[in-house]
Amino acid sequence: MEIFGALITLIGSIFLLLGGLGILRMPDVYNRMQTGTKATTLGSILFLAGISVGHLECGCFGKIIIIILFVIFTNPISSNTLARAAHYAGVKLTERSVKDDLKEDNLENKGEKK
């Protein structure tokens, strides 16, 4: 069981590493935030699950499940909030972006034309 837990932990670590590389490679704040959130959420879940599976004798399974649920619920919400705040503060999208849905929503709420 320890080998299986170590394998899951390694896969989680790889996702965390790829998330870090994605943050360095993406062109703007919004893409970096999306990359970091998705990769770190999955990486953290796999890492914690691997620790739980690899060390069943420690009795921390319930605590790790609570931590995993906390990560699942808070990572996407905080990322969305930070992205909206960045957009509201005027942080520009990259030139390669095709569509800005928040800009269109803001114009419709103010009663302006697109």
> Quick one: how many beta strands?
0
Mean pLDDT: 86
Query: How many structural domains does the protein architecture include?
Result: 1
- Low-pLDDT runs: none
Q: What radius of gyration results from the CA coordinates? A: 19 Å
**Main sheet characteristics:** none
Could you tell me how far the N terminus lies from the C terminus, measured between alpha carbons in angstroms? Answer: 58 Å
Protein model, in words:
The protein has one domain. It is built from 4 helices and no strands. It has helices at 2-25, 29-54, 61-89, 101-110. The relative contact order is 0.14.
What's the gist of this structure?
78% of the residues lie in helices and 0% in strands. The protein has 114 residues and is mostly helical.
Jot down its keywords.
single chain; about 110 residues; elongated
What is this structure's SSE topology?
Layout: H1 2-25, H2 29-54, H3 61-89, H4 101-110
Helix pairs in contact: 1-2, 2-3
